[in-house]
Amino acid sequence: MGHMSDSMGCSVQEVLAVFDAYRKEALLVLIFVFIMTASGADLIADLSHGASLEHILKEAVIVVMSLFAVAWVLVGMYQQKLEIIALKKELKQLDRTRSQPKKYVLEARKKLGNVVTQQFSEWELTGSESDVGWLLLKGFSLKEIAVFRSTLEKTVRQQASSIYKKSGVPGRHAFSAWFIEDIL
């Protein structure tokens, strides 16, 4: 697919990632739009055939409720998008304000990074599992990791479970402690 851009400046991959992240929401919108359209068409047909006021009101309620449901889901999607933007801004701000650590700290980080990389290799973590493992060690939530990796939170949860299984630890805290337990 590459990085072919559409007229709005979004790559095809970005559009697919958004759809993947909002798969349930998009499906709900499609279902409610279908219900609204079918009920609206039925309402028009009923009006032209002289249906009872009670039946017309029932159909109108279904159309209006479907419209509100679509609006509700779209507002939720928009709020999630704003949260993602805020998270990304926060990360950029943290990167900018972070002061340069002392040389001994950088050396210790490098050594720990090498140990973590070697251990991930010994546990035979896949590339994706390694990426998730690093983000877990950095303290990010599963939801945040899913946003960074443009994937579903469910996928990240499955990858984290696989990491815990391969490393022989019961969960996230034990996973992090495995690397720092003897240091502190």
Compressed to H and E, one letter per element, the order equals HHHHHHHH
- Rg, rounded, reads 25 Å
Structural class: mainly alpha
What are the segments in which pLDDT stays under 50 over at least 5 consecutive residues? Answer: 1-9
Tell me how many strands there are: 0
Number of helices: 8
DSSP helix fraction: over 70%
Number of domain modules:
2
Describe the structure.
It is a single chain. This protein is mainly α and 184 residues long. It folds into two domains: 12-97; 103-180, Orthogonal Bundle (Arc Repressor Mutant, subunit A), CATH 1.10.10. The chain has eight helices and no strands. α2 packs antiparallel against α3 (53-97), α5 (127-137) crosses α7 and α6 (142-148) crosses α7. The longest helix is centred in the middle third of the chain and has 45 residues, at 53-97. The protein starts with 11 loop residues before the first helix and ends with a helix. Mean pLDDT is 84; it is low at 1-9.
